Amino acid sequence: ETIYRDGSKKVYMSDKNKIEIPLVILINEASASASEILAGAVKDLSQGTLVGKRTFGKGIVQSIIPLENGGAISITTAKYHTSSGNEIHGKGIMPDIEVGLSEGSSSVLLDLGKDEQVKTAIKVINQQ
Known about the structure:
The chain is built from two helices and seven strands; from the N terminus they run βββαββββα. The longest helix has 12 residues, at 116-127. The two termini are 29 Å apart. The chain has helices at residues 34-44, 116-127; strands at 2-4, 9-10, 24-27, 49-52, 60-66, 72-80, 97-98. It is α/β, with parallel strands linked by helices.
C-alpha cells in the first residue's frame, strides 16, 4: 500500500490469489524500490522464498513539481508499506534464508555454478 503525506492510502491488489509454481527470489542490498515491493508482497503472502541479504530500503514515492523559472523540485510524497503494514524505507526486506554472495562474486556478474545464493535458491526450488 502507498501512504501519502496527507494520510490517505492506496492499496494495490492482484486479481491472482496464488502463484502456482515454486518461486524463489534472490535479493540483496542492491535490490531497491519496485523489487522490494515485489519481494515484500511475496514474503507477506507466503507465495515464495526470499534468498540473499537484506534489501536496500528505498520505499518512498517522489513527485516532480515544475517551477515557474523552468526548473523543478523533487519532493517525497508517499511511503510504501508491505501488505502486512511493514515500512520498507530505511529498513529493507529481510530474506527468508540469509545467504551472502560467494567470495569473489558481485551482484552484477554471478557465476551460476559457484554462487552460494544461486545454489541455495536451486536447493529451495528442488524441495518445493
